[in-house]
Amino acid sequence: MVWGLIWYPYRVLDDLGFSAIHSSFFIFSSAIAVSLFFYPLNSYEIVKKKNFWIYAFVGGVTNIAYALAVIEGELVRVMLLFFLSPVWTLPFTFLFLDEAIKPRHVLAATVSIIGACIILWKPDIFVTKIGLGDMFAIIGGIGFALTNVLARAFHQLSVKEKSYAIWVGVVIIAGLTIFLLSMDLKFNQINLSSMGLFIFVGITLLLITMIIQHGLRLVDAVRASPIFLFEIIVVAISGYYLANEILTLKDLVGGLFIITGVLISSRQ
Fold first, then answer.
1. Whole-angstrom distance between the N-terminal and C-terminal Cα of the chain?
2. What's the alpha-carbon Rg for the chain, to the nearest Å?
3. Where would I find the beta strands (DSSP E) of the chain?
4. How far apart are CA 223 and CA 266, in angstroms?
5. How high is the mean pLDDT of the chain?
6. I need a surface site. Which of 29, 52, 168, 237 has the fewest CB within 10 A?
């Protein structure tokens, strides 16, 4: 539910002049600042471990790609492409968890790819560039699948350490992007409204990150994605009422294929 609604404050901040990169930097900085007081690490020796920084990088890219996607693209379309997880989870589970690839997983990936092709299809698809929203959604989906797999593979990292890794990853990647692209930090635009929104969203993401990281330890990687599918329903409803966005028939048909693929992959 939270991930299905979090797009709205990002768009509000975008209207106030803060890009997805700026918003991510301030929001996750707020999350770290609050967590240092109320949810501190037991030891900071974890920052010396390679797995912490790998998880930070993947989590950072995933969250920033999501923020960029929901600002640049159509909400439900973005979510459907984000959930091409059976396609990406398949090789990741084989590489990092050494799990056997079953026929139903291959079928699920195939069905999901068909769904993505339906959503992205247009007569001049091979001569036009893919939309920014679609591109960021696909990048975020790859990162999301890899995060789910690494959450189980990096079992030596605690829930708290994985949560910190994601927050730190977002802040570092957003900060480097702002620096390398010479993007103004817009400190002069920060007022009580925007600061309150940064802190509110930061605390919300702090809490939901901890909950998700704990939950991912309790379910198989291929079963996590169907649970997250509820996000699409929340996005569809909130997008209709808050952004006047309506599903096209093409998106609906493609989405049914992707959802079917996710459900096939999780079937026992």
1. 25
2. 18
3. none
4. 5
5. 83
6. 237
What is the rounded average pLDDT of the residues 94-121? 79
Ramachandran region of residue 153, left (φ > 0), alpha (ψ -120 to 50) or beta?
alpha
For 79, residues 6+ apart whose C-beta sits below 8 A from its C-beta are 4, 137, 231, 232, 235
User: Which band of pLDDT confidence, cut at 50, 70 and 90, is reported for residue 266?
Assistant: low
The residue with tokens 């079963």 is 223
Burial of 53 (0-12, 13-18, 19+ CB in 10 A): middle
What is the C-alpha separation between 106 and 112, in angstroms, rounded?
10
User: What is the per-residue pLDDT across 200-252, written as a single tens digit (0 to 9) for each?
Assistant: 998 998 888 778 777 877 776 666 666 777 787 788 888 888 888 877 788 88
Nearest alpha carbon to residue 20 among 133, 147, 131: 133
Dist CA 109 CA 229 (whole Å)? 16
The reported pTM is 0.83
AA identity, residue 266: S
Q: Is 241 buried (19+), middle (13-18) or exposed (0-12) by CB count in 10 A?
A: exposed
For 172, the 3-state DSSP assignment is helix
Cβ neighbors of 244 (< 8 A, separation 6 or more) are: none
The per-residue pLDDT for range 68-88, each reduced to its tens digit, is 999 988 888 888 788 777 678
Nearest to 20 by CA among 75, 73, 64, 82: 64
Residues 6+ apart with CB under 8 A from 231: 1, 3, 4, 79, 83
- Helices 159-180 and 50-72, axial angle in degrees (round to 10): 60
